[in-house]
Amino acid sequence: MSNTHNDHVTLSLVIPVFREGSNLHGVLQAVRVSLDQCNLPYEIVLVDDGSNDDSWNVITAEAQAFPSIRAFRLSRNFGKEAAVCAGLERARGDAVILMDADGQHPPSLLTSMVQMWQSSGADIVQAVKRKRGNESLSGKLSALLFYIILNKLSGFDLKGASDFKLLNRKALNAWLQMGERNVFFRGMAAWMGFTTVQIPFEVVPRSGGQSTWSYLKRLKLALIGITAFSSFPLQLVTFAGALFFAFSLLLSAETLYQKLAGQAVSGFATVILLLLLIGSLLMISLGIIGEYLTRIYEEVKGRPRYLITESIEPARKLPVNE
Predict the structure, then answer these.
(1) Higher pLDDT among residues 271 and 190, named by residue
(2) Does residue 182 belong to any structural domain of this protein?
(3) How far is CA 159 from CA 71, 107, 147, 232, 237, in A?
(4) Are residues 101 and 199 in the same domain?
(5) Among 190, 194, 218, 322, which residue is least crowded by beta carbons within 10 Å?
(6) Range with the lowest mean pLDDT among 82-96, 102-116, 181-195, 216-230?
(7) Mean pLDDT of the chain
(8) Strand order through the sheet with 308-312
(9) 185-192 and 169-176 helices cross at what angle (nearest 10)?
(10) According to the model, what pLDDT value does residue 135 have?
(11) Angle at the Cα of 129 from the Cα atoms of 108 and 205, rounded to 5 degrees
(12) Distance separating alpha carbons of residues 299 and 230, to the nearest angstrom
């Protein structure tokens, strides 16, 4: 296989990185093997999301050894979705693939994704999880519950979906037009409605290190996904209020009847239970409204999604693998 040089990039691979220094070298090695088999000019865009380990040192060493790598370091940990935005906004390819840096998105699938994109003419090639690997039962159940709720509220079926996707330039440009700061990549990709083909894969064990994807981060992303694609929770507050109003009218009529009939009105325990129930409903309603107000507040502030403190660009033209 010989290398020539070309300014044009056909394929961009975007990899957000957070505390993956221990396994990044092996992942990139496997990635280059698969990309070389595509026989297309490519670039690898690495975004360090404020890692506090040696991830940036590993990225720097890799970029010095391989001119196909471009790297960007965020000033702090802005979150995976922000790092995804940073990478996609800087990708220059006719097609862009997004994958994780932990090795659970198998690099061997890259060649198949590119071939499917070339042969199908689809705008998006979506890698769908056939098996979720050795994920805990609670993790699988929480993911299933989230996708069921999101499907019922928004109409988008994201069961088995992942961030492991290929977008052609048309789809990527459309995605980049969505300027919200509360980003949910896979939901936004489904919302666009472009022609999509699927390719199954099995989640493989991590190449090394430990996952930083905590339940709190998953919950935060789930709330962003639900509030970004459906206003039904707000409507649910209205429905609950109307239901309790109707119930209060019936209870008031019964109380008035007993009063006029000269019967003693009892039911202290019932009153306490009603107060607790209504109070809980009010607190939950305020919480739902607060979630939407938080999203509005973050959008209105207009702050950038991320800040880049350092970047590495290739000193020479990108390789074409023939």
Answers:
(1) 190
(2) yes
(3) 32, 22, 6, 20, 27
(4) yes
(5) 322
(6) 216-230
(7) 82
(8) 196-202, 124-131, 165-168, 95-98, 11-17, 42-48, 69-74, 308-312
(9) 110
(10) 61
(11) 60
(12) 16
Are 183 and 287 part of one and the same domain? no
Higher pLDDT, 267 or 166: 166
Residues 293 and 154 both lie in one domain:
no
Query: Could you tell me the CATH number of the domain that includes residue 119?
Result: 3.90.550.10
Quick: pLDDT tens for 255-284: 677 767 766 556 665 676 677 777 777 888
Both 149 and 265 in one domain: the answer is no
Count CA atoms within 13 Å of residue 7 on its CB side.
0
| Beta-carbon contacts of residue 144 (< 8 Å; ≥ 6 apart) | 159
DSSP per position, 31-87: HHHHHHTTTS-EEEEEEE-S-SSSHHHHHHHHHHH-TTEEEEEESS---HHHHHHHH
How would residue 35 be classed by pLDDT, with cut points 50, 70 and 90? very high
Give residue 233's identity as a one-letter amino acid code: P
Q: What is the DSSP string of 165-195?
A: EEEEHHHHHHHHT---SS--HHHHHHHH---
Are 206 and 60 found together in one domain? yes
Of 119, 121, 118, 105, the C-alpha closest to 14 is 105
Question: Residue 319 and residue 15: Cα distance in Å, rounded?
Answer: 19
